[in-house]
Input
Amino acid sequence: MDKNRLRQLLNKLSSGEIQVDAALESLKNLPFEDLGFAKVDHHRGVRNSIPEVVYAKDKKPENVIAIARAMHKKSGRFLITKASQYIHDNLKIKEAKFHPDSCLISCGEDKNKKGLVLVVSAGTSDIPVAEEAAVTGSFLGSKTEFIYDIGVAGIHRLFDNREKLAKARVIIVVAGMEGALPSVVGGITDKPVIAVPTSVGYGTSFGGLTALFAMLNSCVPGIAVMNIDNGFGAGCLAHKINLLK
Output
């Protein structure tokens, strides 16, 4: 449950459209629902605007499915990261959508999009992480656009998109290899920049550590840096910044 759904419920109670017992039934599993193997935090979206998200990797598929179904029953929406086509197919929820590039499953995406989050990737190998950021931000309710494959090896491709950079409220920059792109973007815009290092690269990229260190040591002040391959975290932070007035 999020703030909008809670407000709708309280308005229905206030207007007499529903009775107290019906409202109590809707609220009885707040702040969480105990499934035995998991305690589903239905109240999280009310507390901090980001609902609980299911991280599927290293979990039993049947447990992921049970958690997602519990969330769908309560709020009609959920987001699963590091998911698989198998999990999607066995959810048996018609409106659930599998995003193969990012391995996300979304359901009940917020349709009232606000602001603009721009997701930029250095190379095509960075697209899965960039897509995770873009899908997450869009699911939460941010209008999201993307520009892919404009890394520093062909920097003219970036400069050709300066109008899009100027229109965004927040820019997520995803890069592997030497991780230089966030510094370049940060040097030509006054918008908040969220840098996401990826594990893309040869031996001395050390699974994304080289890109991570480069972003942390950027000469451009004020760049926020996510963990390696954490497109989800970038999407959440960008959404929160995007909603600031």
